[in-house]
Write a structure and sequence with these properties.
The chain has 134 residues and is mainly alpha-helical. It contains 5 helices and 3 strands; from the N terminus they run ααβααββα. It has a 3-stranded antiparallel β-sheet with strand order 1-3-2. β2 and β3 form a beta hairpin. It is globular, with a radius of gyration of 17 Å. It starts with 12 loop residues before the first helix and ends in a 27-residue tail after the last helix.
């Protein structure tokens, strides 16, 4: 899964940002790494449903964009740890208002109550949506 960037062809800043975070798992990877640096296996466990191939590809793309830092330790067995770069932290900060919008308009809105009239689990409930998350 190779991403071809379109420098100079962007219509606006949102277009450019969406090119960086586009993909089903990238925003969730950013959220998980915002909590703490993680090894590959930890990330995979925190993102149920992602395949190793897709996770590796999305991490490579985020690394190429300067959002994620990959630290390989010279140990036996080999150990690799992923963390956010300052650019990645600023991107996560920029995504904060989008998350607030989702909580207000989707999780707390009419869609938050299921067809049986039962309230669905929200992000700020006491149930951790990402293991070890806030």
């Amino acid at each position: 899964m190779t991403t071809v960037r379109r420098p100079g062809a962007y219509v606006c800043g949102i277009d450019a940002a969406m090119d960086v975070i586009g993909g089903k798992w990238k925003v969730l990877i950013l959220w998980a790494l915002h909590v703490r640096p993680c090894r590959f296996g930890e990330l995979r466990r925190e993102l149920p449903g992602v395949t190793e191939k897709v996770l590796a590809a999305q991490l490579r793309e985020l690394e190429a964009d300067g959002i994620v830092h990959r630290e390989a330790y010279d140990e036996v067995p080999p150990r690799v740890e992923y963390s956010l770069t300052p650019r990645g932290v600023s991107l996560n900060d920029a995504l904060g208002p989008l998350g607030a919008w989702g909580r207000t308009n989707i999780l707390d809105g009419p869609a938050a109550v299921g067809s049986a009239g039962v309230r669905q689990v929200r992000e700020d409930d006491d149930v951790a949506l990402i293991a070890g998350g806030p």
